[in-house]
Design a protein that fits this description.
Length: 115
């Protein structure tokens, strides 16, 4: 059901923006709200894409690399929270799979001095 099909049965002279909301059923109103939200999202994405294009063109016009104007944040490695009690140099952040050393998985304990 489109916005125009909602408007047409109610008022034969209605345009897409002229809808008599008082005569719509709950389902028709919910569909209208859904379509309006979709249209808002489409327009928002189009404006963002247009703005990105303008910014990139302006940066290129001045001959400056894009990454110099908008540097990407480099992710830092998370701090170590666990260590191998047999070899304190072997640490693990607790994120992801624990490291395996030589095919065996060492037992890591919480590192109180690492954090």
């Amino acid at each position: 059901m489109t916005l125009q099909s909602l408007a047409h049965p109610i008022d034969t002279h209605a345009t897409q923006t002229e809808v008599d909301l008082q005569h719509l059923s709950t389902g028709q109103l919910e569909d209208l709200v859904y379509q309006a939200r979709v249209q808002l999202l489409v327009l928002h994405k189009a404006r963002i894409a247009e703005l990105r294009g303008k910014v990139k063109a302006l940066i290129a016009e001045h001959g400056i690399p894009f990454d110099e104007v908008f540097p990407t944040a480099k992710r830092r490695a998370p701090p170590a929270r666990y260590e191998n009690p047999d070899d304190p140099r072997e640490t693990w952040s607790g994120i992801g799979r624990p490291p395996t050393l030589g095919g065996s998985r060492p037992t890591f304990i919480y590192c109180t001095h690492c954090v």
